[in-house]
Amino acid sequence: MGDLGWLGQVLPLVAAGFGVGLLVGLTGVGGGALMTPLLISTFGLSPQVAVGTDLLYASITKTAGGWRHHLADHVDWPIVLRLASGSLPAAALLLAVIASLPENSTNALAHWIRMGLVVALPLSGLAIVLYPLFSRTAPSNDTGDVPPRTLPTVLFGALLGLLVTLTSVGAGAIGVTVLAALYPMLPAKRLVGSDIAHAVPLTLVGGLGHFGLGNVNAGLLLVLIVGSIPGILLGARLAGIVPERVLRPILAAMLCYAAWVMFNKG
Q1: Region 128-140: what's the mean pLDDT?
Q2: Distance (Å, whole) CA 238 – CA 198
Q3: What distance in Å separates the CA atoms of residue 211 and residue 207, rounded to the nearest whole number?
Q4: Based on C-alpha coordinates, what's the Rg of the chain?
Q5: pTM, whole model, 2 decimals?
Q6: d(CA 51, CA 191)
């Protein structure tokens, strides 16, 4: 772990991974948005390393979920391709811009990441609260062809690619809520499955790009994964015991508080 020390630093990081994983397992969305501000404000990582590490962490943890949704036929692949056709080029473009910045721009980039989090975290909190309202109108079963809505989907994908690559936030709660608004005839299970399937390549491209820029702590990534796997499994088992109408406002409030902390640090 190098600069993070040994046992005194590893155990809190494992606990952080477990806690975020537990929230993801309980709610299905939004918990991952807590990881980046937690790494910055609590563990003192630079915003660049926090974002890069969280993106790779998300790509690994979402892969299993995306594969499970694919096997269950819960992924609308045409929608995923439309999103990716906007998000992946936008992510690559932003990474190229970051790579071209002069070496003395580190503090400025850290500031813009924090300000991006100030915007993205409350949006994620709002999306977490609003999603059940949108998903209530979604049919429980497929009703035939879904209108493609190609242009708004590609444009939203591009915005999401920029936001996720800069902050690592938005691929979950914001993504699935906007999809629910764009495709109200899509069943809720396919909204979630398509959002997760799209998040895998987006977070992977962003994470690998940051890795190439030296913005990933591999030891930290391993520790977070070790902590999050049992948290996700336990959360999935406990899901439904605590009503989501209670959990979602609490999680949204936590994200807004994290945004306030980022604003003060910025």
Answers
A1: 75
A2: 26
A3: 6
A4: 18
A5: 0.89
A6: 25
